[in-house]
Amino acid sequence: MSNTSTVAAPSKTWFGHPAGLFVLFFTEMWERFSYYGMRALLVLYMTDYLLVRPEIGAQVLGFDALKSGLESVFGPLAAQPLASQIYGLYTGFVYFTPFFGGILADRILGQRKTVVLGGILMAIGHFLMAIESMFLLALLFLILGNGCFKPNISTQVGRLYPNGDPRRDGAFTIFYMGINLGAFFSPLVCGTLGQKLGWHYGFAAAGVGMIVGLAIYLLGQKHLAPEPVISARDRSKEEPLSSDDWKKVWALVALCILNIVFWGVYEQQGNTLQIWADKNTNWNLLGWEVPSTWLQSFNPAMIFLFAPLLDGFWRWQAARGKEPTSIVKMGMGCFLLGIGFAVMIAAGSVVGPEERGSILWLVATTFIVTIGELYLSPIGLSLVTKVAPAKIVSMMMGMWFLSSFFGNYLSGLLGTYYETLSKSGFFGLMGVLGILAGMAIIAVQKPLNRAIGKPI
Question: Least CB-packed of 24, 169, 427, 447 within 10 Å?
Fold first, then answer.
């Protein structure tokens, strides 16, 4: 069972934080290297290879059943909308299973064993991607492995700090930078290998990254907060959640629901924006054609650059009593997401369907969207560990990721309109959705604060 408030961490510190933070930092960095390396290639692998060569697609176990099922709901699907649907299902279920992975850790295995199980499953999945016939099975391994891994690595960050420790928000910012350090390098390595040497080289590199992350985690166990041993008898004596606990749970549920739209728009970076980068962007650099998957490195690079600056800005605001609450920050993140896609409205108007435009359109969009992400995503992770009842914190972290399941599937569903709407119309739809989500979050701020009993 998880407890973020009473479990003491080992005393060794690095740079003012428990050494365990950096074990988790590098573990998550390599896991994200593997995930984003595979994600950078996924849509292009399907649209440029797997789905446009019937003799290859026919070899994929379960593919005909999946395609038939989707087409029974959405009608005939060409390669791009079919790839978008599969992308949305995969990235969605990656965030669906953490809810159950949190329950598995809270009730049966504990966080450490569940993380190790998840790492093993994901490594198997990455290497299975090298075999065309195993494509869907590989995705299943990755989905199940991520479900075990994701909620339990994040909650272990919170368990390193006692209740009320002011370092906790900063710790999640550092942890979030680790996520994005891995996400920055993975398209440069996996994307380049996949596009220049062969798809399977890129997928294999992602598998190696997962193994490195798992090794770091196993070797760094002594630096992590100890897990309490809770017997079945102790669990049977647990008191049910109090009315105040339930208020906190429902407040988090409300935020998770509003979080769905943010991720539905945000995840276009790996879907339709990647297609724009590949088909409508000039990547020629001094005569060398830069792999378009390098787009996936823009966002994490900017997070690494601007997260410390934004953290400093918030501290400057806090010193003057003007720092926004967590909920207001999340609303601002949605507004910025919508504004970022307004840049692509202009790009869609200027760049013709068969033309290649400047890379600066994507740079500007990614910058604004990245600042929006920093206002929402790490703030949400920290908020869960502060608000969730301690006895179900892993499950609640899984629920936070569950909202990303619906958001990621929504990204795939929205992506099916990329070729039916004008490009300006499609990007305009994304912008409007982001701004509406921000308005909704700001609107529910007061009732949520009343439910929790204090401004959050």
Answer: 447
So what's the pLDDT on residue 4? Answer: 40
92-127 residue pLDDT tens: 888 888 888 888 887 888 888 999 999 999 999 999
Tokens 């800005």 correspond to what residue?
313
Q: What span, in angstroms and rounded, lies between the C-alpha atoms of 53 and 57?
A: 6
For residue 308, the one-letter residue type is: P
Instruction: Report the percentage of the chain scoring pLDDT > 70.
Output: 92
Q: Say what the pTM is.
A: 0.74
Residue 321 identity (one-letter amino acid): G
For position 250, what pLDDT does the model report?
83
CATH number of this structure's domain 13-227+242-452? 1.20.1250.20
Look at the alpha carbons of 233, 236, 237, 242 in this order and tell me if their dihedral is positive or negative. positive
With 0-12 CB in 10 A as exposed, 13-18 as middle and 19+ as buried, what is 2? Answer: buried
Hey, where are the domains in the chain?
A: 13-227+242-452
281: β partners:
357
* Per-residue 3-state assignment (H helix, E strand, C coil) for 13-80: EECCEEHHHHHHHHHHHHHHHHHHHHHHHHHHHHHHHHCCCHHHHCCCCCHHHHHHHHHHHHCCCCHH
Is residue 310 helix, strand or coil? helix
Residue 341 structure tokens: 């896609």
8 Å CB contact between 397 and 384: yes
Report the distance separating Cα 197 and Cα 80, nearest Å. Answer: 23
User: Three-state SS for 206?
Assistant: helix
Q: Which pLDDT tens digit goes with each residue over 2-56?
A: 344 445 445 677 667 788 888 999 999 999 898 888 888 888 889 888 888 877 7
